Amino acid sequence: MRQYLEMKARHPDALLFFQMGDFYEMFYEDAREAAKALELALTSRQSDADGPIPMCGVPVHAYASYCARLLEAGYKVAVCDQIGNPAEAKGVVRREVTRVLTPGTAVADPRFLDSKESQYLAGLLPGEEGAGLAWADITTGEFRALEIASAPLLASELERLRPKEFLFPQGAAVPPPVHARLREAGARVEARPAGAFARGEAASRLSAQFPDEAGLEEGARAHPSAAGAAAALLEFLRENQPGDLPHLRPVAFGRLADAMALDAATQRNLELVRSAADGGKRGTLLHLLDETLTGMGGRLLKKWVLAPLVSAEAIARRADAVEELAGKAAWRRGLRETLRSVQDIERILGRVGLQTANARDLCGLGSSLGALPALGGRLAEAESALLGGLAGEWDPLEELAAELRAAIVDDPPAAIREGGMFRDGVDPELDRLRLAAREGKSWLSAYEARERERTGLPLRVGFNRVFGYYLELSKRFSEQVPPEYTRKQTLVSAERYITPELKKIEEDVLGAEEKAKELEFLLFGRLRARVGAGSKRILAAADRVARLDALASLAEVAEGRGYVRPVVDEGETIRITEGRHPVMEADPAAPSFVPNDLEVGGERQILILTGPNMSGKSTYLRQSALIVLMAQLGSFVPARAARIGRVDRVFTRVGAHDRLLEGQSTFMVEMVETAAILREATPRSFVVLDEVGRGTSTYDGVSIAWAVVEHLHGAARCRPRTLFATHYHELAELAKELPRVRNLTVEVREWGEEVVFLRKVVEGSCDRSYGIHVGRLAGLPPQVIARARELLAGFEAAAGAEPQGMASGRPRAGKGAGSQLPLFGGGPSPVEEALREIAPDGMSPREALEALYTLKAMLPGGRIEDRERLG
């Protein structure tokens, strides 16, 4: 155990996989952690001073799957391998930690990676104003960095990236919203020495990795915090990965303004890439739009969904390409059929750069590159600017594809040290050694036949790795063997012998086979290095394939679902005709979808939507936001027509949830999200608010909702286009007070006690919520429904003629930022006047009780009780 403890001391923050023969064993606390995470049996071995030593283990041949599970759970793993042949070791077998795997740097077996998900390592360098954020995907070579001005924007970026691992400087303050996003993503967090993030050295350290990249130092100096974070990431990658990382792309410094920033609440509320039900992909916008055929295309499409475009020109260019692909069905099908043969070029190249690629990877790369000429030929027919640009940039890489396909056999082995990878004719020396090995086996067959004839014994030639080649004979013939036979091994029913001639043949055969394997390994290393040297061209080709695949996916969905191309312009109005919720209408189990129109903006800046529970208000809100996002990522949309006045941000405040780990109640979360919208929205934004204020008392809630609408309408730097759904029907009065507010409602039909929700949004307002009806549909007991109706009738009678009102007066809208006009009008009641006349300090107990009965009698329906019982 001394050797184990020494290795563990060098890697205290990692689970140590310690090879012992055919198993990787874990001990002490590592064993307890691993047994729990992997659901392994926890056993023990000999005791130390503290008692039995806990242990568990996994087979060496299956360790990759166990490692993948640990990495997914956020653990760091150090793999300690046996070095050399244990049979030849004198004393303790030599062992070394050969690799350290972390969630953000491990290149797992492709079987354990989601081909359409990125595996990000991220780093943060806080500054006096904002922070620098960098991220890299070691499996694809992606490397980016940017400067972010505020903690909320940083939290939104981390929600978009959802890194597997996160680095920050020791002693730095990480904002609470950032911690929350990392915790939700299950990221492993590590504090690194502050020197790794040094801004002053970042430019030179990055240039040393990418010496041929013009403008890198200038970009790093222009983004000092982002460059510091990127340099820290690069150092961490070098510590945990072998080689020079040739596939890693030069760090690209970007700006948030280049794309629409979607805050964490909007990403979650609209279920863009993760379902609210289980966190999976099914039921999301991405799941609907993703018809990509390659891993690169799938990952790129996800980035598009989470970062829609904000330039009308860029949106039009992408939509032009989608329109051309959608309109030329046969052409698109031909392109997609060719795309099916393209494997994940980025990730294959990632394994090449990290020296973990095998012959199957290079075979797959060869066949994938072999599809490029056909794709380029078809793209030559493109008419749109974006697709035409792709065709003009297309690099078929024919020489490399031909070299790979000529070198590697069609079905190579997974191991690169066992031979059988290269075709005959690739190397003359390899051909000679293979011939010698084949002839040697022929010699063995001839030798066996000759010995059978010479001795008259039923012997056979066999082989194992311990004794090499041998002659095997049944024990009943052991007295008849020739004297030149030397017994080598005794079995239950047979004896094994060797002869000088057999050993000579063995030396020739095995020598040729081993030399051939060694030569193949050498040739493979050279071929892999040549592929690595071409990384820049190959990655550029992969980018083009990804863009083509993502565009074709949007076109496939557009044609298949009958979507239309929206117009995105610089106008201020969003106008959607017969819009539909893209995800809900695609669900085969859902009822037929009722389309609805939307016109918001200009003189219709704020739309207040009232209507019953379960009538479809939230669906209408979400579908409107999704259609806007789809339009700006270049997709066609589910509507009869759509014209979108360009949007810079989409904000949503929909649904209810708490954040217990942050100490935030449901209502607090609602207020935090609403505050962010009021702080960050602009006249170019599109805001969707659902039930603001519902998490508190009625008076508090309606007051907050009222004030929020006033602010959205009146604040000069805000004034976004807004959809505001509410059950506070009093807010409908705002349309009479504020010039750019309009009312919408969802139609309902009543037949006796039956209510039918028509799910059609029309102009107007609603003064009933039909909550009891919904409760009956949900299965509340009849006696509960009956009692609820009885109570409702009483409350409505007590409230007077306006069933849903809270007081007799009409609310009035504030006329300015400093206005404090009363929300609920009406003069004092008789009970209030009587209370003012009472002087409680001068009253006897009897007088006080009489006054109380008098006040009760003044209430509606009250009566003076018989007071004789007091005397």
Tell me about this structure:
This protein has 871 residues and is of the alpha/beta class. The protein has 6 domains: 100 residues, 3-Layer(aba) Sandwich (MutS, DNA mismatch repair protein, domain I), CATH 3.40.1170; 144 residues, Nucleotidyltransferase, domain 5, CATH 3.30.420.110; 146 residues, MutS, DNA mismatch repair protein, Chain A, domain 3 (Orthogonal Bundle); 101 residues, MutS, DNA mismatch repair protein, Chain A, domain 3, CATH 1.10.1420.10; 203 residues, 3-Layer(aba) Sandwich (Rossmann fold), CATH 3.40.50; 41 residues, no CATH class. The protein contains 30 helices and 26 strands. The chain has a 6-stranded mixed β-sheet, sandwiched between helices. Strands 11-10-7-8-9-12 form a 6-stranded mixed β-sheet. It has a 6-stranded mixed β-sheet with strand order 22-23-24-20-25-26, sandwiched between helices. α6 crosses α8, α7 crosses α8 and α12 crosses α21. It is elongated. The C terminus is likely disordered.
Main beta sheet: 6 strands, mixed
Extract low-pLDDT stretches: 801-811, 815-826, 864-871
Helix content estimate: 40-55%
What best-fitting shape do the alpha-carbon axes yield? Answer: elongated
Summarize the structure.
This protein is α/β, with parallel strands linked by helices and 871 residues long. It folds into six domains: 2-101, MutS, DNA mismatch repair protein, domain I (3-Layer(aba) Sandwich), CATH 3.40.1170.10; 115-258, MutS, connector domain (Nucleotidyltransferase, domain 5); 292-406 and 530-560, Orthogonal Bundle (MutS, DNA mismatch repair protein, Chain A, domain 3); 428-528, MutS, DNA mismatch repair protein, Chain A, domain 3; 567-769, Rossmann fold, CATH 3.40.50; 830-870, no CATH class. The protein has 30 helices and 26 strands.
